[in-house]
Amino acid sequence: MNKIMNKNSRLHPLAFFVFLYNNLKRYLLFIIFLFFEIIGDRHSGLLLYGSLILLLIFSFIDALFRYIFFAYRFDENSLTIDSGVFVRHHEHIPFNKIQTIQHKQWFFLQPFGLESLSIETAGHNDGKAEAILPVIPLKISNFIEKLNQQSRLEDVSSEVVPQQAKNKKIDSNYQINFHDLSKYALTSFGIIPTLLGFVGFFSQVDDYLPQSIKKPVESTINSLVAQEFLIILILILLFSLLASYLTTVQKYYHFTLIKSEHKLTTIRGFFQRYVVSLPLKKIQAVFVKQSILRQWLKLATVETIVASDAGKNEKDAGDLVILPVIEKQQLFQQVQKFISYFPKQMPKLTHLPTFQSWYFIRNAILVCLLPIVALIYFYHFWGCFSLLIVPLVISLGYYKSRHMAFAIIPGGRYLFQSGRFWTNELYLIQQNKIQSVSYRQTIWMARKHLVHLSISIRHANSNHEVQIRYLPEKEARRIYNCYLNKSNT
Amino acid sequence: MNKIEQLPSRIKFIWLIHVFGNLLLLVIGMVLLEFAIHYWKLADWLIYPALVLALLIISFELLSIPYRYRFWQYKITNDSVEIQSGFIFRDRVAIPIARVQNVTLSAGPVLQWQKPEKVVVATASSSHKIDGLKDDTARRLRDQIMHLALEARDE
């Protein structure tokens, strides 16, 4: 292996296509815009065709230069990446500063034994903590990973052979089965963005299509009877459902979670195989999420809140899904296998007294009152339809209040539950991961002995507050004092 | 020092100076507004609501000084910092010293002249401000945290 070290290496030629793809993706909106302008016959063709061709040529040359000027090399201690055409970047990453390494492999790279490597360090200068090696041979990426692990073991004499340093011991693992995955995909709300996408697309197309195409379509639509119209609507609905189902299935295809030594590794993806490993001590909190739909089906999703950006490609940074779907019954047993401080069964939660729901409902109504009044004032009759959101908001408030709960578990662990947008959220946090606890009340709440209790934890590079609202003062004191006293010992 | 403490009483004077600073800014704002009204020929009456607003801001700030002072309290023990403020809107936060990542002492020109220092206690995720501490108290807090930080601790 030593022959690949200390040598300037070029990316695999296929990297050119990755750069090209990224460029095209960057200009995608503009290209679509040009495309519609062209078929819409709005302006003189030459200008449009010209700019489209220029754009393509530019993307092509840019990608080519990027490829040519990209080089990397590494030795036992560090990785160096040279990039940039006009402004040359020399990125120098010592292995012991690397936080996480993510492997991504598009399906078409598999036969070539290539993959992409994202390296994240702890430095947080304007979110540019990542170095990416777009297309490199698996051999090299595994070697880099090995060197990284070796440097983590640290202080073992420097002659240790990589093979020796890594005898991978798997403590527990979990693989999703297709049945569960299907259930997960079917109950995801991914259908809503897809539907919105449809609506958006059609409204755009309507503006841009030339008369020659639009006319016949319109006349067909006009001649449709209500029944046929309904059928089309149902078809669109089914199609969106299918699209969202397939997207979710491909994303979590063959999802595998492995616990080995002191880290968790997740592997997932159909078209793009995505491997992330995460040191266990980086986990700030375990987060169990259940939308109301999944509550009925007794399914839950388990995520971890992480101090780094390992979950960057998830919806928001700092969350890493560790179990996409799990039956509520098995939840505690399964998670406990991977995260040792997770309780073996559901502890008894202390809920808010029933009467407290009133505060949540009142606040929810107050929030939506102003827009409703404004709408009614400006639109009179049509504005009255905004009153329909009142029952919706009441149910949100009620749901929230019924899900506010907490439990103090022996061993300096806390369980907090809350409900947001008909989604039940359960946080398990260890004493030493809570950064601070704050205790807020207004003078009116003080009279009724109620408190908002906020627990601050670290999430990616910022703060995340878990809030239990309108908690009876007695209980809030208990948590607050427990937190303060525990940290004293 | 395990008892609840108030900010040094000099902080009231410092806040007062800050209010005058704000007053100066508002006066400059008013003058600019007057110019703008003349220059762009805007409606003349615009200056009156602006004046009323400025007066309200300043009088609120002035009147709130004794209130802020009365209810602003902190407690530093060997293991934790607690900060409490407000009466109508009460806020009380507990930060174990083991969670504190760094302490920043800072002093603007007014604070430098009057001696107290502003202390910002930062954890890995949030930061909490104590408006003014006597310089010996501030240094002691800093040393205490530095001392704990030197001991091994879990992350």
Detail the topology: elements first, then pairings.
The complex is a heterodimer of chains A (489) and B (155).
Chain A: E1 9-10, H1 15-26, H2 28-40, H3 45-68, E2 71-74, E3 78-83, E4 89-94, E5 98-106, E6 114-121, E7 130-137, H4 138-153, H5 162-165, E8 170-175, H6 178-186, H7 191-208, H8 211-223, H9 226-251, E9 256-260, E10 263-268, E11 272-279, E12 283-291, H10 292-296, E13 299-306, E14 319-327, H11 328-338, E15 350-351, H12 357-379, H13 389-403, E16 405-409, E17 413-420, E18 423-430, E19 434-442, H14 443-447, E20 450-459, E21 462-472, H15 473-488
Antiparallel strand pairs in A: 1-2, 2-3, 3-4, 5-6, 5-11, 6-7, 8-9, 9-10, 10-11, 12-13, 12-18, 13-14, 15-16, 16-17, 17-18, 19-20, 20-21
Helix pairs in contact in A: 1-3, 2-3, 6-9, 7-9, 12-13
Chain B: E1 5-6, H1 10-39, H2 47-71, E2 73-76, E3 80-85, E4 89-96, E5 100-106, H3 109-114, E6 117-123, E7 127-133, H4 135-150
Antiparallel strand pairs in B: 1-2, 2-3, 3-4, 5-6, 6-7
Helix pairs in contact in B: 1-2
The portion of residues forming beta strands of chain A comes to 25-35%
- Per CATH, the architecture of the domain at 2-167 in chain A is Roll
The unreliable regions of chain A are 155-167
- The total domain count of chain B is 2
Class computed from helices, strands and strand pairing of chain A? alpha+beta
Helices of chain A, by number, come to 15
Protein traits:
heterodimer; A: 489 residues; alpha+beta; PH-domain like; B: 155 residues; 2 domains; four-stranded antiparallel sheet; 50% helix; YdbS-like_PH (chain B); transmembrane (chain B); membrane (chain B); transmembrane helix (chain B); YdbS-like PH domain-containing protein (chain B)
